[in-house]
Amino acid sequence: HVGDLTTMVLVPQVCDATDLPVLAAGGIGDGRGVAAAFLLGAVGVQVGTRFLVAEECGVHPNYKKKVLKANDIATMVTGKRLGHPVRQIKNQFAKEYAKAEYSSISDEELEKLGGGALYRAAVEGDEKTGDFLAGQISGMIHKEQPAAEIIREMFEGAEEVLKGAGKWVK
Questions:
Q1: CA dihedral 141, 143, 147, 151 (to 10 degrees)
Q2: Residue spans of alpha helices (H) in the chain
Q3: Residues 103 and 114 placed together within one structural domain of the fold
Q4: Same-domain check for residues 66 and 123
């Protein structure tokens, strides 16, 4: 989910290592990202954060507001110590968890600290103790839309980018 390699580095390596179709994921939220994924060798994309603000998405309205208010430095990663890192929007919970993660707290206590935090964010909308999982792409998302419109916008944007890509090759 969250590793040391970025999409830009990982996708070409995976494409070179297999004959299987590769789906790119991570940091893809508009047509430019889709086009980049295709040019890196992927045959498709997986999009997560962008759909958090789809009209059809059932997360609490506070969750959607957090994503829509996010900027380019609004997220942070926690969970590395326990082996399951996640990226989330910075809030009181995220900062307290990060502080605890690098303290002398036991792994069991740390696990307990995170228990129910995603539920508190997604269902209850608790802005202080909820864990608002979201990718760095959050800073590029500015409106709630129907899912079909998001898809259409992303792929029409990708087509435009790819049509113009020839100008970079002689």
A1: -50
A2: 7-17, 31-39, 61-69, 92-101, 107-114, 117-122, 147-164
A3: yes
A4: yes
The CB-side HSE value for 34 (13 A sphere, CA atoms) comes to: 22
* Structural domains in the chain (count): 2
pLDDT in tens, 39-79: 999 999 999 999 999 999 999 999 999 999 999 999 999 99
34 vs 71: CA distance, rounded Å: 20
Task: State the DSSP code for 145.
Answer: B
Which pLDDT score is estimated for 56?
98
What pLDDT does residue 1 have?
59
Q: Is the dihedral of CA 60, 133, 46, 162 positive or negative?
A: positive
pTM as predicted: 0.91
Closest CA to 138 of 93, 104, 91: 91
Provide the residue range defining the domain that includes 164: 1-48+145-170
| 86 and 129 together in one domain | yes
Instruction: Tell me, yes or no, whether 139 and 61 share the same domain.
Output: yes
> Do 101 and 163 fall within a single domain?
no
